[in-house]
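Reviewer 2 asked us to include a model.

Predict the structure of this chain.
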Amino acid sequence: MTGPWLIALAAIGLPQAAPADEAAPAAAIVSPQRQQALVRIVRQDCGSCHGMRLTGGLGPALTPEALADKPLASLAATVFHGRPGTPMPAWRSMLSEADAQWIAERLLAGFPEEAR
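Predicted model (structure tokens):
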């Protein structure tokens, strides 16, 4: 990862993640059962701030259109580490890094409506 996002992550103290093309897709690591649990977590917990349809609320929209200019690694880092100085909490006590990566991948693709 290079450019302004690298500087931004360093400035707020977040570790640098490997570029998306170097990382294995999280779907290969996260089991189908865990994926179902993650959909529920995002819809219920993230939805309480980002809107139940993830179209915005107290927090910004998490739709593919709203996130189109955001790097995958940055989104995964935000889910895992939160955003210091903002209401966005770190979810690392409940999620693995692979979970955060899977969530970020799904947000960019269009988050599932319900668990499969």
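Confidence is low (pLDDT under 50) at residues 1-22. The helical segments are 4-11, 32-50, 64-67, 72-81, 97-109. We have added this to the supplementary material.
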